[in-house]
């Protein structure tokens, strides 16, 4: 059973044990294997509750179990679920909710050298796109602090919140928390951490774990006396990432001595560390690479591989995806790895199957990674490769597309058709009931397109063998999916155009209205940040292909919420300028003025650097700060001047 404090956290997070009783929650904690048989609602409730407890400083399951068993199960069932696609929300600690000065995201994770190579490959490609020399690019490696993420703008300290809005927890500095290494305020993102050795010696008797302690430092309630002492002893600090010990150097140097560098950085600090962070140092390239709603593409968390095992392959099953790609899935002699029973693993593609001899009798090395279905790391004993001679779904002869095997029968292949229909409802997210079983049944009765589903009547559903109650529910859900508001970019993503996932759709529709996308030229697409030249042609082609379905669905009247259009960047009054605010401001809070600056096209920095264009100085700004800014050739303007600039009048 949960403690009173834990129950409190659950109710504070506006969660309740509805679909999941407290008893069942505890049972699922203790027996991770049971999660595979839990219902979808149970699973999602379980994750929300585990997450709220973890973020509130009361984790009830290990991170490994959370990632590799519970979250992995969700990934298997609903890969588009927000818990996987966005930053996991934090519970609201008491305090004002404020916009974060910069977006704070989670990190993309790598568990093998292969993953790291793939990430570097994407960076190399981005270098090519910008005509930069990849060999000269500088990489940075820092320890990944396992504390409590926060952002210090020099004035306030904010929690990461949902990545865009956080809570003002400046109180922790008022309580005497120091910046690590006698550092200054205003160094941006970092983590509240506690010295591992200090924790073990002085705090372990009073707090269950370090996370529990960190949360107690942030909470509004009176500090516990041991926590107070830890802060005084500077064992608990705010550690800005900018001050972390780091390794820097080019890719070649990093990869040729990878293990050694990682190990060294991993153990450099006396704080809990759960990996290392790899990133690049090049603002232009970082900007070009951008971010998903979950992580920055220029950053990667490398974590140690979990347990590995050697297992025998029983057979290789082909699976055709929505896009026609045929994926090899190896059926394995069941094996237990990091607490879960595994019986399947994917190979990257059929070229790998062919080259490495993956087939019945092969012995492979399996490592459990963040994926639900683990990947084959290495083939130890090769066998006769098992490669299909036809698409498992439509029996059409497959074709090779580089390393991949493709079913080219896009318009008739049942797997592609059913997965596309499922994809539509899953991405739309404002409905239930159209999972794979329902869609399969609809397919059997001749349904091939989503608009045909919308045209079905109660009688038709029933004639297909759905019960009266289910038929009614499906109709209700169809209605709901049209009536409930849905962002236009999400609606577009539901069509599953190649390269048009949620992130790209959101980006595109920030610049163009939904109805205009079919008239966009490749040049129009490329001119938007984040779209590469090579993908533009495929995107345009994809749009042409969905146009008939798009028109049919639009005619049904979905409740679409149009994206806010950023006005033409160049026309904005502060386009491309980097602005920093300092001192006491009068026409609004720093936050509000920052927002106005951003709306006018500016970027808002937290500290003056050589790249800063304007330092907006309010009242009571120290002379040193102004001198430092002048030395960096930064234009210092008053708040009044800033307001004029906003309006487009020169200051
Ligand atoms: N045990 C549980 O019940 C439970 C529940 C939910 C989540 N979790 C754990 O939380 C993790 C996911 O949390 P997350 O979204 O914070 O992602 P994450 O663990 O990948 O961490 C991302 C964060 O790393 C931080 N970071 C630390 N050192 C850094 C450095 N040197 N440079 C840059 N950033 C650095 C940043 O603050 C960033 O926000 C999972 O690994 C999961 O195991 C556990
Ligand atoms: Zn097929």
Describe it for me?
This protein has 651 residues and is of the alpha+beta class. It is 38% helix and 20% strand. The radius of gyration is 27 Å and the shape is globular. The relative contact order is 0.07. The model has no long low-confidence stretch (mean pLDDT 88). It binds nicotinamide-adenine-dinucleotide and zinc ion. The site of nicotinamide-adenine-dinucleotide has 25 residues, from α3, α4, β2 and β3.
Which percent bin holds the helix content?
Answer: 25-40%
Q: Given this structure, which CATH class of the largest domain is correct?
A: Alpha Beta
The gross shape turns out to be: globular
Please name the fourth-level CATH homologous superfamily of the largest domain: DNA ligase/mRNA capping enzyme
Distance between the termini: 64 Å
- What's the overall average pLDDT, rounded? 88
Please tally the helical runs, counting DSSP H or I stretches of 4 or more residues: 26
Strand content: 15-25%
Major sheet summary line:
7 strands, antiparallel
Q: Give the number of DSSP strands.
A: 25
* Rg, nearest Å: 27 Å
Write the layout of secondary structure elements.
Elements: H1 4-12, H2 22-30, H3 40-55, H4 63-77, H5 82-85, E1 97-99, E2 106-110, H6 113-129, E3 138-145, E4 148-152, E5 157-159, E6 165-167, H7 171-174, E7 178-179, E8 188-194, H8 196-203, H9 210-218, H10 225-232, E9 236-240, E10 247-250, H11 251-256, H12 258-266, E11 273-281, H13 283-289, E12 295-302, E13 308-320, E14 325-337, E15 340-346, H14 350-356, E16 363-367, E17 375-381, E18 399-401, E19 404-406, H15 414-428, H16 436-444, H17 450-454, H18 458-463, H19 468-483, E20 486-487, H20 488-493, H21 502-509, H22 522-526, H23 533-554, E21 560-561, E22 578-582, H24 590-599, E23 603-605, E24 614-617, H25 623-631, E25 635-638, H26 639-646
Parallel strand pairs: 2-12, 7-9, 20-21, 22-23, 22-24, 24-25
Antiparallel strand pairs: 1-6, 3-10, 3-11, 4-5, 4-8, 8-9, 11-12, 13-14, 13-16, 14-15, 14-19, 16-17, 18-19
Bound molecules: nicotinamide-adenine-dinucleotide and zinc ion.
The site of zinc ion (ZN) has 9 residues, from loops.
